[in-house]
Amino acid sequence: CDVLVFLRAVRIPDLQPRPTMSLTVKAYLDRPGAQGTPPEHEIRRFAIDPSVSSSYDYLSRKVAQVFPCLSEPGNFQLFWKDGEGDLVSFSSDEELLEALGFVSDGIFRIYVKATSSGSSQATPGDAQPDGTFHPNVVCDGCN
């Protein structure tokens, strides 16, 4: 009983990881104009490597870099727009991840509001109607 066996060589493609695409960020800067002038608006686009796309510190440093007028991360606040059109503030990796979950067209839109560059201390004019400066935050600096 003779058995004939045919072997066929099949090339297996290299199992290289697919290149991941960077995250495109579109940043809208809103900063107060000089006294008696309307606010100034500026829009910038930039890419962030996927390995650091969930780092709030990296994102805030990048925003400070692309908008030289901001000079450093402490001089502005970052926001994203939710499904209801509300601007939602974010200032941590966890909040950034929440915001990234709402990216639908591959562009992460952030809204940058310049704060007074002189001081990060709260002033009485910054207080909420109930007298708190930072709602839902226990603040050692205010007590």
Number of strands: 5
| SSE topology string | EEHEEHE
Overall average pLDDT: 77
Q: How many distinct helices?
A: 2
Strand order of the largest sheet: 2-1-5-3-4
Low-confidence stretches: 118-125
Give helix % range. Answer: 10-25%
Q: First CA to last CA: what distance?
A: 95 Å
Give the DSSP E fraction (strand runs of 2 or more residues).
Answer: 25-35%
Structural class: alpha+beta
Q: What about the largest sheet? A: 5 strands, mixed
Provide the gyration radius in Å: 24 Å
Globular, elongated, flat, extended or rod-shaped: what is the shape?
elongated
Topology:
Blueprint: E1 23-31, E2 40-48, H1 56-66, E3 76-81, E4 87-90, H2 93-100, E5 107-114
Parallel strand pairs: 1-5
Antiparallel strand pairs: 1-2, 3-4, 3-5
If you had to describe this structure to a student in words, what would you say it looks like?
This protein has 143 residues and is of the alpha+beta class. The chain contains two helices and five strands; from the N terminus they run ββαββαβ. The protein has a five-stranded mixed sheet, covered by helices on one side. The longest helix is centred in the middle third of the chain and has 11 residues, at 56-66. It starts with 22 loop residues before the first strand and ends in a 29-residue tail after the last strand. Mean pLDDT is 77; it is low at 118-125.
Please sum up the structure shown.
With 143 residues, this protein is α+β, with helices and mostly antiparallel strands.
